[in-house]
Specification:
The protein has helices at about 40-45, 50-55, 60-70, 120-140; strands at about 5-10, 15-20, 25, 30-35, 80-85, 90-95, 95-100, 105-110. With about 140 residues, the protein is an alpha+beta fold. The strands form four sheets. Strands 1-4 form a two-stranded antiparallel sheet.
Amino acid sequence: LLPWCSYLDEEPEPSIVTVANVQHLGTALEGHLSDPRPNVLELVAALCPTPALGGFPRDEALDLIAAAEGFTRGRYGGAVGWVDAAGDGTWAVAIRCAELSADRRSARLVAGGGIVADSEPLAELAETQAKFQAMLSAIVRP
């Protein structure tokens, strides 16, 4: 964000963000956009996919992910939000994604995990399964 900001500050330590089935680490950022103010779509394009979903360095990591995953991510990891005529908007990252088929008889769910050198495969699988629970409860009838 520094190329677009005259001021940028962040919390010194991440905090725990609790959602329905899992917890994440989050770090709040606060900044002031420089003049001329960029359009929100410029910022979205620069920030997505985030390093948490796309890796770093970005281009090399995305190439490696594409080769390893074997499927297209679709809208997973992309930006979801709105923009008005003045170029202002609010956006979030789709860290969970459910894409319905055209006939609405099936859905493809996508969630991920932050894989690092010390990751334990079974623990990562369990975490990913927990992430699916909120989406499954929204689309599966008992």
